[in-house]
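Supplementary Text 2. Reproducibility record for the structural model of the 298-residue chain.

All settings were left at their defaults, and a single model was retained for analysis rather than an ensemble. We include the record here because the model underlies the residue-level annotations in Supplementary Table 4.
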Amino acid sequence: MQVFVIGNISVDETYLINDLPQKGSSIHGAKTHQDLGGKGANQAIILSRCGINTTLIAAIGNDNQGHWCKEKIEQERLTLRPNSPRDCRTDTSLILNCADGDNANITTTTAADALSINDIEQELLFSKPGDVVLQQGNFSHQKTEAIFSLARQNGLITVFNPSPVKNTFAELLPLIDILVVNQLEAQLLGNTADCILAAHTLLNAGVGQVVVTLGAEGSMLLNGTGLTHVAAEPVSVKDTTGAGDTFLAVMLASSLLRQSSLAAIDLQRAALASSITIGRTGTLSAFPTQFELAQMLK
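Retained model, structure tokens:
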């Protein structure tokens, strides 16, 4: 079993501010961290730390930040493809970390956009039926659809975390085996403010299993056997950056290691892992270690 995470890598720069600025205002802030990030890289790193054979298909630029990202990835137990950088700048995420622990992110997609469908198709030649393709929302609708269509043709399991979310992603739901969304994404794609109704709408649209993360209210899993709610782990919030990526990766890894469909135990393990990330500051530096994850996944 191998997971192909097709997404992005970025350099995360975190700034501590009192509150988000209003339009036209200038505020003071303090740069507190620079770390490896990008939802694709985040999820791939955590999957690999869980013991999953992971390939990250993502582009870096041919600049100093690209070299720095590659060095960071090489310290993890995963494979980065393609080998060669793209002729562009490496993507960057600007993270505004508010005093209350919440955050807002600004992410560039120049390098991610430079990764072509042909690049991805060449890398998926190494896949086998039953392997997993995991995507986020960083690509265009057209590229996202093409990747999932290719995955389905090759007999691969498709997992979608549509963040940042686009309205048109609702058209892709019949291609998705596992959909992982937060409450706002579920409401947008399900076209209703009722989160449970939205989850049912997504399932009825053709998704195999729907997972909705609810922040402090926990998470819920909806599939053909019914609805399961799992409580969140109590935690003192320091930084929510990467919490959703931690949850998804540990949940998926738990299911794959059990060789079974998603169940409450997978969401419980994911909630525990997310509480570790939330209780620390930064991105990569906040993720659970390989040892911590091994203890959770026993």
